[in-house]
Amino acid sequence: MSEFKWHDAAIRKALQVYFIMGSNNCLKDPMDVLREAIDGGITLFQFREKGTGALSGEPMVELAYRMRELCRRHDVPFIVNDDVELAITVDADGVHVGQEDEGASAVRERIGSRLLGVSAYNMGEAGAAICSGADYLGVGPLFSTQTKEDAKAASGLQVLTEMRGSGIHIPIVGIGGITAANAGQVIHAGADGVSFITAISHADDPTAAAREMRQAVHAAGGSTSNAKSGKAGGSR
Ligand SMILES: Cc1ncc(COP(=O)(O)OP(=O)(O)O)c(N)n1
Ligand SMILES: Cc1ncsc1CCOP(=O)(O)O
Ligand SMILES: [Mg+2]
User: Fold this and answer.
1) How far is Cα 40 from Cα 47, in angstroms, rounded to an integer?
2) Pocket of ligand 2 (CB under 6 A)
3) In this structure, is residue 30 part of a structural domain?
């Protein structure tokens, strides 16, 4: 198992431009989409092979391996959605789980020091996720989304201001309907970064789309403006 220890500042930096995708989200070869997104400057990638038309079994595992290799070559940390077994099999850098998935405490036990992201829709879920050992929260859907089949109603940005106003300092990434046009608002509301599927997976030019997202996050202050306890020396 990887012994890499994630530091707070490194997590906030990685969350800045967090691309999530599975083969069924793409309009062309998913490896090309990922390669182009990396060229455009994404800072973290989540393999989320889920929903109508998703791969399963050996083809899914093979795609995960190929994507993990590509990310590793470019020093982009690789996260697996939902599937802890798969994350361990492909030696992912972390796992993201939601409220309907395996419990965060059990996942932490299984993955050791790998990065653990947990979804939180409200203050109660955020508090529980932190107690269970989450390294970061995925908060949303903030805006309406067509991508997640069972998504809750859009919460709006006030959930972020409420969390930050109540002393929740853990790294947070916003999710749901995020584009380069609204990414700055997400950062200003208190998130360290933005995560998104469609903004890149449906873009004619994923490299340009990633670059645009990166510029929007940096223009809004990026992770540095929200880092409350970043330790120096994070090596990612
Ligand atoms: C960064 C990030 N935040 C939230 C989610 C959503 O997780 P979940 O609620 O478990 O829903 P699914 O993605 O599994 O459908 C996420 N994947 N990533
Ligand atoms: C996985 C997930 N969780 C909450 S919203 C969402 C989908 C985000 O996709 P998009 O960026 O296309 O709205
Ligand atoms: Mg999930």
Assistant:
1) 18
2) 140-141, 145, 147-148, 151, 175-178, 196-199
3) yes
| pLDDT higher than threshold 70 for residue 232 | no
Q: Which listed residue (110, 148, 152, 236) is catalytic?
A: 148
pLDDT of 231 higher than 90? no
- Token readout for 99 is 């409220």
Query: Annotated binding site: which residue ranges?
Result: 46-50, 81-82, 101, 119, 145-148, 177, 197-198
Asked whether residue 181 is domain-assigned, the answer is yes
Q: Give residue-wise pLDDT tens across range 26-47.
A: 999 999 999 999 999 999 999 9
Any residues with Cβ below 6 Å from ligand 1, and which?
Answer: 20, 46, 48, 50, 81-82, 96-98, 101, 117, 119, 138, 148, 173, 175, 195
Tokens of 83: 């599937």
Nearest to 222 by CA among 171, 175, 177: 171
Q: Whose CA is nearest to atom 4 of ligand 2?
A: 141
Whether residue 44 lies inside any domain: the answer is: yes
80-123 tens-digit pLDDT: 999 999 999 999 999 999 999 999 999 999 999 999 999 999 99
Q: Which residues span the domain enclosing 106?
A: 9-226
Please tell me the total count of domains within the chain.
Answer: 1
Residue 2's DSSP bridge partners are none
The enclosing domain of 107 has a CATH number of 3.20.20.70
pLDDT of residue 52: 94
Q: Which helix (H) or strand (E) holds 218?
A: helix 206-219
